[in-house]
Design goal:
By secondary structure, this protein is of the alpha/beta class. It has seven helices and nine strands. A three-stranded parallel beta sheet has the order 1-2-3. A hairpin with a 2-residue loop joins β4 and β5. α6 packs parallel to α7. The longest helix is centred in the first third of the chain and has 17 residues. The chain starts with a helix and ends in a 5-residue tail after the last helix.
Length: 186
């Protein structure tokens, strides 16, 4: 996440050099934490937490020329009904780094079963955004996301949850269903 912020800063500078009127939005876990720096570099909107509804609204507002620049980061912790991600416009999974295991490389996919974290560890960047709140991604959504990635060539799925066992029953049910359907996928 820190690397993504550093890469974004370089991209922001390039965009601002060539397109001064573009509306720039940064979202995710590190965006609210780096809001002052992002604003200084020319970012208009900063979103965190469950950012999808605000991002969708922002896109509609920009489309209709009705968006006004806001102050402060918008952090939403509302409960969402998720949908499986559409990764069809992304590069093929084989173009991303793979998992090296016993001398071979497996094509990797990524999903998450929860967001946020119920813990408040002092070293963690999740805490300033979620402050002990976590949200589950519905099991049918996680499994459909996994299915799509396996159809796209994934041989290993990484769960990127800050703490996979925030909701142990939820997580174990997903892993059991995943293994039952795809016993050879790690």
């Amino acid at each position: 996440m820190h690397t993504a912020t550093r890469l974004a800063l370089r991209a922001i500078e390039k965009v601002r050099t060539h397109q001064r009127i573009a509306h720039l939005c940064c979202y995710g876990l590190y965006a609210p934490l780096n809001e002052p720096l992002l604003r200084q570099k020319g970012v208009d909107t900063v979103l965190g937490g469950e950012f999808e509804p605000a991002l969708l609204k922002l896109a509609g507002d920009i489309h209709h020329n009705s968006h006004r620049q806001q102050g402060g980061a918008v952090i939403s912790l509302e409960k969402l009904r998720f949908i499986p991600p559409d990764r069809s416009d992304l590069p093929a999974l084989a173009r991303y780094p793979g998992l090296r295991l016993n001398g071979s490389t497996r094509v990797m996919g990524y999903t998450e079963a929860t967001r946020g974290c119920k813990h408040r560890c002092l070293h963690c960047p999740v805490v300033p955004v979620y402050d002990g709140v976590f949200r589950v991604v519905q099991q049918d959504v996680v499994l459909e996301d996994v299915r799509r990635q396996i159809r796209a060539g994934a041989e290993h799925i990484t769960f990127g949850d800050p703490d996979f066992l925030n909701a142990p029953t939820h997580s174990l049910n997903i892993v059991r269903a995943f293994h039952a359907e795809f016993p050879r996928v790690t």
